[in-house]
Amino acid sequence: MVSLVVSYCLLLSHGVSWCFVVSHGVSCCLMVSHGLKVLAIDEHLNVVHQDNVQFDSALPEFRTQGGVHLHPDRLTVTSPVLMWVKALDLLLDKMKRVGFDFSHVQALSGSGQQHGSVYWRRGASRTLQDLDPDQDLHHLLKSSFSVLDSPVWMDSSTRTQCLHLQDTVGGALRLAQITGSTAYERFTGNQIAKMRQSRGVEFEDTERISLVSSFAASLFLGGYAAIDYSDGSGMNLLDISTRTWSEICLQATAPHLDLLLGLPRPPTSVLGPVSAYFIHRYGFSESCSVVAFTGDNPASLAGMRLQPGDIAVSLGTSDTVFLWIQQPRPALQGHVFCNPVDWRQYMALLCFKNGSLTRERIRNECAGGSWEVFSAALRETPLGNDGNIGFYFDTMEITPPGVGVHRFDRDDKQVSSFGGQVEVRALVEGQFLSRRLHAERLGYNIVPGTRVLATGGASSNRDILQVLSDVFNAPVFTIDLNNSACLGSAYRAMHGNTTVIQH
Ligand code: ADP
Ligand code: XUL
After folding, report:
1. Start and end of every Carbohydrate kinase FGGY C-terminal domain (predicted)?
2. Which fold has domain 16-301+484-502?
3. pTM of the complete model
């Protein structure tokens, strides 16, 4: 069993060679629900500028909580698209006021929360092409959206549309084999199907549908930006092996949907130069290129500098696992997306709802509320827990869908309780075995050289990380992921820009 735990230093790893032609890359990381962030890096990947706008406090006129509106049915969750536009005005104005020199920016990219959708009204593309630099974007674009409330990733109101999609394509597993995921309520195709059914008039008046990421890129580009393969994989519409829209999924969702979506493109594509509006209003250089924007999770993978074979485990309120995989096997649980760094490869994302909160409950019940006592229990019990294991789903788990506490002793007999220390180890080993099992089901293999990158609140606990290392039989490195999506977008801006220059 491996027992190495060291620190992974974010800015000293590989990748410097592809950024030498860039003097500043800017990433604009949009809307991880509650805010808009910007980050600029120099040619050495050092962060030279950072700022952000919080939607609730900076834009109170939109009356959001955490950047969203929760509707009375408690399933529908939306954000005002004009709030997102206005946040960009505010952020760029702030940068201008503090003297940020936009003329040094060679390339920009960004990321947005996955799955959310933006509906551009007929005629909006003409408006985007000819924006008056003396006016704010939110003023210029106030009539450019057919739907003002954009469905976001927290929406879970499309159960009917999900069932219809799965029935049409031949079942949940078939849909996962095509699109990388079974039908999820928040995935954009199901949201589009609901929009078409419930708001037919507005839908008819729509000339283009963007993801949050491609919407933000469109603002900078002054024209509709392509959806990139990686964020496009979170829609239940993209065939992740051919990287084209799946005909059967499109047909099950809305007529002529391919025209509304445009052609998907590789995540490293340079989409074009920044529009004249930004050159005249903020002083961007004419040669500044806009690299395709992507989803926040793919951008985080780039920001963490995951490499083939690596696995990242975020131990926050819930646990999230990211993987770089070469030969995915989409399954009933988890998501496979096209990879944002190397578009021929893949990444996977697994979400586990019962993470730190369940560890906290067991800490309170078996360790007197002390992480120190909890850690001592891990140190004082043997690897494998003498065959005792448990699955602790305090609330309905996402991966796998299940609820309740299930304990098994060394004879695989279900038992109703364990002693305190055994309970602590059964919980932590059970959680990490489940993370490994579901990763392997999606095609992940632990090979010599595999690194486990751990982040989030519980990654400060060395004894928890020791169990993680033992279960994955691999060294664990800790990593600070604050800003990983933003940083990843800045790296991608450089990467995309340099890739084109080298060709
Ligand atoms: P979020 O997902 O909200 O960003 P964090 O990454 O900040 O959350 O993680 C918060 C969680 O970290 C808390 O719920 C807490 O249970 C856990 N945590 C904090 N310190 C420790 C520790 N020493 N050992 C285990 N878990 C810890
Ligand atoms: C991933 C997901 C969220 C959003 C918002 O599938 O729904 O992580 O990307 O951050």
Report:
1. 312-495
2. Nucleotidyltransferase; domain 5 (3.30.420)
3. 0.87
